[in-house]
Amino acid sequence: MNAPDPQTILDWYDRHARRLPWRVPPARSKAGERPEPYHVWLSEVMLQQTTVAAVGPYFARFLARWPRIDDLARADLDDVLTEWAGLGYYARARNLHKCARVVVSDHGGVFPDTEDGLRALPGIGPYTAAAIAAIAFDRAATPVDGNIERVMARLFAITEPMPDAKPAMRTAAARMTPAERAGDYAQAVMDLGATVCTPRSPACAICPWCDACIARAQGIAEELPRRAPKRARPTRRAVAYWMVRGDGAVLLRRRPEEGLLGGMMEVPSTPWEERDDFHDAPPVEADWRDLPGLVEHGFTHLQLQLKVKAARIDGRKARFGVWVPVERFGDHALPTLTRKVVRHALAHVGKGA
Ligand code: SF4
């Protein structure tokens, strides 16, 4: 059995590279053209935890609105969060904005071209630093995400369960990284993981590394990488209060900067607690009524259930948050959870309470 050769996958990439808006096609990349670091960075931050298909329209909108990094650095944070809404993980959008400012203020608007330099920027972890260093600057860096871990696990038949298998995957990936065309190589392995070496039913028959792949030879490709048994996600519960003023405005408040949905607008609720019941603690006295059903929302590590109560409120009694007419909700960066609560409340009480 042959050892896998990086050149084999580069040849495959030359013929099959996905056309992506932030990417320079292989023919031009081989001629020395590099993609705009701003585009690579933006796409990589957006792609964390999200698919290429989902990111496309966001990427286009961001660039149309903020064509260069200085434009993004000058943008209002709320505008950035509003454009980001729907991509989730809002801390990333806040860091994106912070990073743009640091690149402009400390680096003259030019991204550092090394992994270490990139790592020092807000919101850029080891994977993103390696991806930008490789793709934008052709450094022999090794970005290792879930796709690349899967390819390495199969190529070298790494059978330890996750996460213990990670160091072996990382070492294998680093050893494979070529000194030449490292950026194209990184993107080639990303493409292979996304289109051929998929989690279920890998298309080994058309894989450029078919002859070298140990897991395929052993018939265990689909089983890898092995996962440790999953722990159930805990459920947290809370009560959200839909407060409507006489003129129809609804009370929203900003969540604390730290923690889940940090700094995002929400319908005020009790703290999200791991408990079996819904602890009711209305922020103001009123004639509260329970709305039927629950709002459910999944975060990576927990499941949230919200019961929603609604009441008409004397605006002078609520001394927190901001009163927002329902028609103006679009002006605020509402995360998906808040939008679910809004939809739930409007479906049951309309624009009244
Ligand atoms: Fe993945 Fe199959 Fe290719 Fe191995 S041969 S790398 S399992 S697609």
Please outline what is shown here.
The chain has 353 residues and is α+β, with helices and mostly antiparallel strands. The chain has 14 helices and seven strands.
Describe this structure in words.
The protein is α+β, with helices and mostly antiparallel strands. Helices cover 41% and strands 10% of the residues. Strand 5 and strand 6 form a beta hairpin. 37% of the residues are buried. The radius of gyration is 24 Å and the shape is globular. It has 2 domains: 218 residues, Orthogonal Bundle (Endonuclease III, domain 1), CATH 1.10.340; 115 residues, Nucleoside Triphosphate Pyrophosphohydrolase (Alpha-Beta Complex). The strands form 2 sheets. Strands 1, 4, 5 and 6 form a 4-stranded mixed β-sheet that branches. It has a 3-stranded antiparallel β-sheet with strand order 3-2-7, with no helix packed on it. The protein has 14 helices and 7 strands.
